[in-house]
Design goal:
By secondary structure, this protein is mostly beta strands. The chain is built from 4 helices and 39 strands. Strands 1, 4, 5, 6, 10, 13, 16, 17, 18, 22, 25 and 28 form a 12-stranded mixed sheet that branches. It has a 6-stranded mixed sheet with strand order 29-30-32-34-36-38, with no helix packed on it. It is elongated.
Length: 527
């Protein structure tokens, strides 16, 4: 399971967890000095959860409140001095009856996104330790959120995942676990558009990629992010006992897959001529799983036709690349599906004729996360319409209605195997008001609808396409108008409860005379 990433959180310190969320004081001072123009803010959403207004932080990143992205939860300020503004508020979710709590953001189908969630507990609820809970992206459980260790060290925590848009919206949800002792919470949410050329070897119809580490080698100090990285990725410094070296030329990020920023390759670790270079990275042990690994190399010397630096690359004894020539213009090698577990050792073995020792400048590693599936699109759209037609739907009616299975919407049952369909909606005596949308007829896999004992009004829409519907209970509401004659086409219908509404007109003969149908119509104004 992907590990959390930690970073310091007080003012003038780097914020986040495996990389920086905000710049340090030194980077702020650099931005105040005359310099090259800052690149445009990375496309996407930068949401300061629980905030009441906009904030400009972290190299001119404009953070916005979370109003309009979620309809549930409460907000709280963190009562600690000198916090970075993006950590000074949060949104928490005290309703223990809800199966999940979702943010929904506009998305473009097929577009790749970097999703980053940031957490700083701050003792907002008077507790000692933060709760443990799950986070979900679209219909896939992404990871557990356990920030306890980082919080005790005075650190905030962030998580990242690379996903592809599956429709017009992308949902990021939190959900309780059996051991969740208090309210799940979130401090910040980012959804950043990535270029089509980045991380494009993964089948995002089947997988997501959860960040394990993203490091620039041979350096210490602050985390590198926007504006040096136009996609606001966090590149954490990494140094070990190996000699460090500075490069004499810059790469052109556009020449690389994944477009690493030039500064991420500006330094590296190396060794002397003829020696092997061993690097233990990442430092944490990895759970046995499949990983995407990308390594970046750049010869630190001034470019020359007479210089070369050739070596073989191995990871945990497995050949990764043979005969790599690390030129001054740089090179990247990757594996999109590599099995790893435990400690990770990168071994660089020089060619016999190489005049200098091997080196490495940067690396990224992501855990491959199998997607949990997706509810059929027509069902998702119809259920979203239904939720928006109710004035007070259950608080967890957002995100994927069926997935993950243990976090489906309240009152919604779905098929277990793909294609995942909505099978039942049961919200009787739920205090609902509003109307039934015409698109409810698109729920062609539904077998039962129980909406008795609410305050729903308006007409009953055409449901003739719902051929699998066996029971429709709308009794005890405020529906008006006539019974749609199309209901006669529901050949599998066994129960139709329309009693105690405000319906008028005539009861269609095909319903009155239908064999095996339990039809209840008393308490209306039929002719």
């Amino acid at each position: 399971m992907p590990s959390p990433i930690a970073s310091p959180l007080l003012a003038f310190a780097v914020v986040a967890a495996a990389a920086a969320l905000l710049p340090s004081s030194s980077s702020q001072q650099q931005q105040q000095a005359p310099a090259a123009a800052v690149p445009p803010q990375p496309r996407g959403f930068y949401i300061n959860c629980g905030s009441s207004g906009k904030e400009v932080q972290g190299g001119s990143i404009k953070w916005i409140p979370d109003d309009g992205f979620t309809a549930v939860g409460n907000v709280s300020a963190i009562d600690k001095p000198d916090l970075l503004p993006v950590l000074a508020t949060l949104r928490y979710f005290p309703d223990a009856t809800a199966r999940k709590y979702c943010y929904q953001l506009p998305a473009v189908k097929g577009t790749r996104y970097l999703v980053r969630t940031t957490y700083f507990y701050g003792g907002f609820d008077g507790g000692k330790d933060p709760p443990v809970f799950d986070q979900i992206v679209d219909g896939t459980r992404w990871s557990a959120v356990n920030t306890t260790d980082n919080y005790r060290r005075g650190m905030s925590t962030y998580f990242e995942v690379v996903v592809q848009g599956q429709g017009k919206t992308l949902s990021v949800c939190l959900a309780r676990r059996p051991e969740t002792a208090s309210s799940p919470f979130i401090s910040a949410l980012e959804v950043i558009d990535l270029d089509d050329s980045m991380y494009n070897t993964t089948d995002y119809g089947r997988y997501a990629m959860s960040t394990v580490a993203r490091s620039r080698f041979g350096c210490k100090g602050e985390i590198l992010s926007y504006p040096d990285d136009p996609y606001n990725r966090y590149w954490a410094p990494f140094a070990d006992a190996n000699p460090m070296v500075e490069s004499h030329s810059s790469i052109a990020p556009g020449d690389f897959w994944n477009q690493p920023p030039a500064k991420a390759l500006k330094a590296g670790v190396t060794t002397s001529r003829g020696k092997k270079l061993t690097v233990q990275w990442p430092q944490a042990e990895l759970p046995a799983a499949t990983y995407y690994v990308a390594l970046y190399f750049q010869d630190s010397r001034t470019a020359s036709p007479y210089s070369w630096r050739v070596f073989d690359v191995a990871i945990n004894g497995q050949e990764f690349f043979r005969g790599l020539n690390a030129s001054a213009s740089g090179v990247m090698v990757y594996s999109s599906m590599m099995q790893l577990s435990g400690k990770t050792e990168i071994l660089l073995t020089p060619n016999d004729t190489s005049p200098v020792g091997p080196l490495i400048n940067a690396g990224e590693i992501y855990q491959i996360v199998p997607l949990g599936g997706k509810t059929v699109t027509r069902d998702v759209v119809a259920m979203e319409d239904l939720a928006s037609s109710f004035k007070n739907p259950p608080p967890d009616w957002a995100g994927d209605p069926c997935l993950p299975q243990q976090h489906s919407w309240t009152g919604v049952e779905c098929s277990k195997e793909p294609p995942v369909r909505v099978l039942s909606v049961d919200l009787k005596n739920h205090g609902l008001s509003g109307m039934l949308p015409d698109s409810i007829g698109n729920l062609t896999g539904v077998q039962t609808i129980y909406l008795s004992g609410n305050k729903l009004s308006g007409s009953i829409p055409d449901m003739s396409s719902m051929h699998t519907l066996t029971a429709l209970r709308l009794d005890g509401n405020q529906f008006s108008g006539t019974i749609n004659p199309s209901m006669e086409k529901l050949v599998n219908l066994k129960e139709l409860y329309l009693n105690n509404n405000n319906l008028t007109g005539k009861i269609p003969g095909g319903l009155k005379n239908k064999a095996g149908l339990d039809l209840r119509t008393e308490g209306n104004k039929f002719e």
